[in-house]
Amino acid sequence: MLVYSKDIKILNILDARTDAPVEYRAVDLVGLGEYYRAAAFVLSGSGESTAVVNFFGRVFDPVKNSGRLRFVSGDFTRGIISKQGIYLGRVSGWYPDTPDSMAKYRVKVTLPPQYDAVAGGNLVSRERGEKHSLTIYDNPLECDGLDLVGGVYSVSSQDFDGITVETFFHPEDKALAPAYIEAAGKYIAKYSKLLGTYPYERFSIVSKPLFHGIRHALVHAAGQASNTNHAHSGVRIRP
Hints:
This protein is mainly β.
């Protein structure tokens, strides 16, 4: 069964072995139907099989102000793609996925030329042309979801023992970059000694179009101009 946002439309599901269409049916999600849809299907034949799902959609859940506790809990959206920025967390259902899955991801993102995209995993390539930017990330380790953040950024980076620590901050916040990079580098070194070697090539700190931050492994998504107390951030890093 695949679960995905109600704003996503499945064009078709194909059996990768034959490119033949696979029949699927809608499944009711008790208590979740307001936000999500589900589809069930069966691949025939024996042995290992792979399904190819072609889908499209417009993800835009307006940002909700959390009110008086905003500085603690931050703003919330299930997923948004706008001129101000992109935030697609695993809870948004922006791609069809099986419940409780652990998977490896490779994502290719095409955006207008002034935008950058950042996702979990290792950067394969980042190209910028006159008409668009093209970014590819590959996550070779199984994880429970794929987060994607994007926007118009000022980018800074520094190498720490072979790990690239980089910031993608809105231009008005670019002066904060050196302090964040230095703090992240120190904490990666500290917690690598305690927890084991950091398993990725880079650690990205990304400003998203929300107040306050939501932190994940690989990508630290910091709220725009909201949190200059960065010393605790590295504690959230987990290999």
